[in-house]
Write a structure and sequence with these properties.
This protein is mostly helical. Helix content is about 55%, strand content about 5%. The protein is built from 15 helices and 4 strands. It has a 4-stranded parallel β-sheet with strand order 2-1-3-4. Helix 9 links the parallel strand 3 and strand 4. The protein is globular, with a radius of gyration of 22 Å.
Length: about 290
């Protein structure tokens, strides 16, 4: 809120530019992550750059700047920062809403000084962190060409979420979600293909070292990148099945949609729900064509 309320340019900045133009200059003296600086009590004389006044803003709100995270945010630095914020805010609900402290890398990771991570960091510390938080919000937009599904870090975050049993929640902005729901009703197969077109081998990252490290981990894992691709697709298929169920709940759901959602549910082993969709599809066809139609 402080970013977008105080800086007009921030409303059109991509997240990477927010880091380079706002967060890094602000922490020139602190040389730490934004969370660490605010938790330690950032002094006014140590603030630098356009974010000067942030510590006082947080203090005036009367809230603790840092607490145990209730959700991990998986996103792409290519997103317009305001769009990222709006998408996350729209999805923060239930138990997350009761204490909305989010793990957002641009704030929790030291962006000023690059850290040397242990060789097994991605397999051990990172996964334990995802498991400990227990809830991942994946910002997936634009839905027709989802950036995170082409980013190394995001794919590893989805994998870590699934592998540790954490909950995966997908976030989209309001207009993006409306377009997505309309597409589900009219071209479910196309949506399915787009959202399950995963290839770790082709994924990229801002930092080439990160990209190469994650790719190497994927290749060394049991089953290699092919198996990892499948493991990443699975929670997305589960989410898409649930989105399909919600889209097909309306009385005007077409037999086509019901059949497609039913088939996906059957493939996922959710047989009772699949049967319900198939029965509704049959009833809809019979109502239109008659019981004796071949």
């Amino acid at each position: 809120a402080f970013f977008t309320s105080n800086f007009t340019r921030c409303r059109s900045m991509i997240t990477k530019d927010v880091v380079e133009e706002l967060i890094k200059p602000y922490l020139e003296v602190a040389r730490s992550s934004l969370c660490e600086a605010l938790e330690a009590g950032m002094r006014k004389e140590d603030e630098r750059g356009p974010l000067m006044g942030l510590a006082a803003f947080v203090a005036d709100k009367g809230i603790a700047p840092v607490k145990r995270a209730t959700a991990f945010v998986s996103h792409a630095w290519k997103y317009v920062f305001q769009d990222l914020s709006a998408a996350v805010e729209a999805e923060v609900e239930g138990e997350v809403k009761a204490s909305p402290y989010l793990w957002l890398d641009i704030c929790t990771v030291n962006q000023v000084e690059q850290q040397q991570l242990p060789k097994d960091y991605f397999y051990s510390t990172f996964k334990r962190g995802i498991e400990s938080i227990g809830h991942t919000i994946l910002v997936l937009q634009p839905w027709a060409d989802p950036i995170p599904l082409k980013r190394s870090w995001c794919l590893w975050e989805i994998h870590s979420t699934s592998a540790t049993g954490a909950t995966l929640q997908v976030a989209m902005g309001a207009s993006e979600r409306a377009d997505f729901q309309n597409a589900l009703r009219t071209k479910f197969d196309g949506v399915y293909d787009l959202l399950t077109r995963i290839d770790v081998e082709k994924a990229e990252a801002w930092g080439k070292d990160d990209q190469e490290t994650i790719l190497q981990l994927a290749r060394e894992a049991d089953g290699g990148t092919s198996r990892l691709n499948g493991e990443i697709k699975e929670p997305l298929r589960e989410w898409l099945a649930q989105a399909g169920l919600e889209a097909s709940a309306s009385e005007d759901a077409t037999p086509f949609l019901l059949n497609r959602v039913g088939t996906l549910l059957k493939d996922l082993g959710r047989l009772n729900e699949a049967e319900g969709c198939f029965r509704r599809a049959l009833e809809a066809r019979e109502a239109t064509l008659g019981e004796n139609h071949p």
